[in-house]
Amino acid sequence: MPATPNNVPEPSRTDPALIRNFCIIAHIDHGKSTLADRMLQLTGVVEQRQMRAQYLDRMDIERERGITIKSQAVRLPWAPTHDKGNTHILNMIDTPGHVDFTYEVSRSLAACEGTILLVDAAQGIEAQTLANLYLAMENDLTIIPVLNKIDLPAAQPEKFAEELANLVGCEPDDVLKVSAKTGLGVEALLDRVVEEIPAPVGVKDAPARAMIFDSVYDSYRGVVTYVRVVDGQLNKRERIRMMSTGATHELLEIGTNSPEMLPADGLGVGEVGYLITGVKDVRQSKVGDTVTTQQKGAEEPLGGYKDPKPMVFSGLYPLDGSDYPELREALDKLQLNDAALVYEPETSAALGFGFRVGFLGLLHLDVIRERLEREFGLALIATAPNVVYRVIMEDGTEHTVTNPSEFPEGKIHEVYEPVVRATILAPSEFIGAIMELCQARRGTLLGMDYLSEDRVEIRYTLPLAEIVFDFFDQLKSKTRGYASLDYEPTGEQSSSLVKVDILLHGDKVDAFSAITHKDQAYAYGVRLVAKLKELIPRQNFEVPVQAAIGSRVIARETIRAIRKDVLAKCYGGDISRKRKLLEKQKEGKKRMKMVGSVEVPQEAFIAVLSSDDSAGTGKGKK
C-alpha cells in the first residue's frame, strides 16, 4: 500500500541510501506534468478528493496555457516491489519543456542524480528532447528512457523505442512504455527509479552545506527558499549563514514539500526541502548560493550555477507613471522566483520612466509581462523586443547597444550581432520549405542528418535578431505544425546593420528607432511610416512622416492638414474675394507650421512599439 504523508519517516533521520533525487525532462507537451500527477496519486501524497490535473502547475498562466513555467519539487514515499520492507524517499522535480526555460531545467538537473527522459510515442524525439538530453549528459546523470502516451491510436512505440535506444545507447527493450493518463506502467517506472538512480553522496558529520535551487516570495511569511542538502544537516531554530552575502538568519521553519509544505525538525544529506527565515528583503536569497550554519559552518561554498545570459531585451513601462515604484518592487519579487530575469532602469522621451528587461526568449517575455499584470495589478507597455549589438567606431571606441536609441552617431567601422546555432527537427518532406525560410533569414546551413527514414535534423547558424520575432510562427505554418526548434547562442558575427530613424515634422522620435539589416531597411521604413500615417491624428498643418538612415530619407508619407472651410460664408461674389480668404488661410498655416509641434497620442506609441502583434506566443512554442 502506498505510504501517506502521516507515515513518512522524519526528514532529519532519513538514511541517504533510501533517498533518490530525480527530475522529468521532455519536449513541451509530451506529458511531464501528467506523469507527475500519476506519481502523486500512486504514492498517496495527494488524496483522491484533492487531486486535479497538472497538480504541480500552481500558476494560473501555466494552467491556462497548458505549459510548465516553474520547476516544482515534491517528496514522494515509495516502497518498491523488490524491497517492500523499506520505504524509499523520492524527491521528484517536474521541469518546463520550452526552450526559453532551459535555465530552470539546468538548475533542476544540478540538484539530482538521475532523470527520466520522456518522449511522446506518437510524436517521437523533438528538438528540446535532444537539448535536455545533452544537458543531462553534461551533468553525468543516470538517464531512464521512457515512452509516454502509448494508449493513443497514433502511437508507434516500437519505432520510437528504437530511435530513443539509439540516442541513449541502450537496447529498445530497456525503454519503458507508460501511459501517464491511465497510469499504465508508472509503478514499474518508480521501481526502476529506485533500482537505477544512485543514492545521494554526502558527508553526514561535515559542516552543513545546502544549495539554493529556487526561492519564492510569500507576502505573509517572507522569502521561502528551496534547498538541496549536500553535506551535514540543517536543524530548526539554529542560525544559518548565506555564503555569498554573509547574511545570517534564524531558521524559523524547515521542512519538505509533500507537495504541500510539511514542517520537520531538520534536513539531512541528500534531502530536498524549504527554509523560512522570515526575511522580507528579496536580495538576501540568491539562487545558486550555499547555505551553511553560523556556528562551525563550512568554509568552501558549493559550485553554484552559471548565470544565464539574456537573449532578448524589451522595455517595460507602466501606463501610469506613478506606478513606477510598484513596478520596481514587482520586478524585485519576480527576480527572486525567476533567476533568469535581469533589468535596469531606463527613460524614454515618449513613455517616461521604465525598465530595460532582459529575457531568455519571447515566451519568457510574454509570461513575465503577464505575471506582472496579474500578480501585481500593473498596466504595462512592452516595447518591441530587440537583441544586444556591439558597435565599433572608426576611432576604435566600442559601444554595447541594447536599445536602438543608444546606437552611436558618426563613422562606424563594424557592427556585431549575436548568432545562434538552431536545430530544427521535422518530417523530411518539408526540407525545401525550411531551407527557404532559413536562407531568407540570413541563415547558413551547418549540416543535416536523418534520424529515421522520414525524420530529419537540420542545423543552421542564424542571427538572433531574425528569430526573435515571427520565425517560429513561420516555421510552424510552413511545416503544418510538425517542426520543432531549439537554439543556443554561439557568439557573434559582423553584419551590415543600420539604424532607421523616424522623423515627424523633421524631428527624430527616439522611441520609433530600430536597428535592422541594410537590405531590409527600406521595407521596414515604408511599413512604419504607413502605419504612423494612420495612427497620428491630422494637425492644423501638413506633417511629413519620414524614415531615414543617417541624413538620407528612405521613405515618406504626408499627413494632410485639417482645413477649415473659409469659403463657407462667401456666397457668390468675385473670385478675388475667395482667393484673398484662401491666401490668408495659407499664411496662417505657414506661421503655425513654424511654431507647431506634432502631438503623438499614447495609442500610436503603444500600437507601434508594442510587441503584441509580433510576439504572439502560446502553447507549443518550440
From TrEMBL:
Protein name: Elongation factor 4
Superkingdom of the source species: Bacteria
Keyword DNA-binding: no
Homology family: Belongs to the TRAFAC class translation factor GTPase superfamily. Classic translation factor GTPase family. LepA subfamily.
Topology within the bilayer: Peripheral membrane protein
Subcellular location as annotated: Cell membrane
Function text: Required for accurate and efficient protein synthesis under certain stress conditions. May act as a fidelity factor of the translation reaction, by catalyzing a one-codon backward translocation of tRNAs on improperly translocated ribosomes. Back-translocation proceeds from a post-translocation (POST) complex to a pre-translocation (PRE) complex, thus giving elongation factor G a second chance to translocate the tRNAs correctly. Binds to ribosomes in a GTP-dependent manner.
PANTHER family in the record: TRANSLATION FACTOR GUF1 HOMOLOG, CHLOROPLASTIC, TRANSLATION FACTOR GUF1-RELATED
Ligand binding (GTP): 29-34, 148-151
Gene3D superfamilies: 3.30.70.240, Elongation factor 4, C-terminal domain, Elongation Factor G (Translational Gtpase), domain 3, P-loop containing nucleotide triphosphate hydrolases, Translation factors
Residues covered by the Tr-type G domain: 17-201
UniProt keyword annotations, A-Z: Cell membrane, Elongation factor, GTP-binding, Hydrolase, Membrane, Nucleotide-binding, Protein biosynthesis
Organism placement in taxonomy: Bacteria, Bacillati, Actinomycetota, Actinomycetes, Kitasatosporales
Pfam family, one: GTP_EFTU
EC id: 3.6.5.n1
Gene that encodes the chain: lepA
Main location: membrane
Reaction catalyzed: GTP + H2O = GDP + phosphate + H(+)
Keyword set includes Cytoplasm: no
NCBIfam families: lepA, small_GTP
Family annotation (InterPro entries): EF-4, EFG_III/V, EFG_V-like, EFTu-like_2, G_TR_CS, LepA_C_sf, LepA_CTD, LepA_IV
GO molecular function terms attached to this record: hydrolase activity; translation elongation factor activity
